[in-house]
Amino acid sequence: MHFNAAERRILRPLSTPEKIAGFLDEVPYNKEPDGPTCRSPRAVMRDRLAHCMEGALFAAAALEAIGFPPLILDLEAVRDDDHVLAIYRANGLWGSIAKSNYAGLRHRTPVYRSIRELVLSYFEHYYNLKGEKTLRAYSRPVPLRRFDALGWRTSEQEVWAIPEHLVEIPHAAILPPRMQSMRFHMDRRLYEAGLTGTAK
Predict the structure, then answer these.
(1) Which residues are within 8 A (CB) of 6 and not within 5 positions of it... i.e. 6 or more apart?
(2) Which CATH number characterizes residue 128's domain?
(3) What single DSSP character describes residue 27?
(4) 9 Cβ partners below 8 Å, 6+ apart?
(5) What's the sign of the alpha-carbon dihedral 52, 53, 59, 62?
(6) Domain containing 64: what range?
(7) Domain for residue 200, yes or no?
(8) What is the pTM of this model?
(9) pLDDT tens for residues 53-78?
């Protein structure tokens, strides 16, 4: 199913990745008060509400509308939630768009030569409320067009098949095995900066 006229009017001004990121920053964070959700980009536009997974799906759909393939990537953490990015390549370099309750886990300018470089840019900012840096692995890029039969862009039903797929696929470790169990802690100032604008 295609986007309707009202949805196209929302998407039309989002003509660059930066504008998509700006739109997503203005959408309130979905804290799921009534239980877990995994809503489509249509629902995000209608309700003006998104969490990490929903934000990545919306960003991927908006990137597709301006000519990029709709790709997402999963960041895997220990003692913490995973995080999902919409990723894109411009001038041969990778960037990302993401929705997060932590300031440092949002967008990245396309200056990274590889997916691994892009992922590592999140390491220092990926932490739990105990101040531990928790990022450990990442998935390969996942083309969302594989879920077209699900109608992921405009479904009125929740699209749980996508995060379920992300959990099942292999992830590449960012640390050597001897370091996987080590605990790394945040600087207090960076910790506090990352909580700037957090939805309560």
Answers:
(1) none
(2) 3.10.620
(3) S
(4) none
(5) negative
(6) 5-194
(7) no
(8) 0.94
(9) 999 999 999 999 999 999 999 999 99
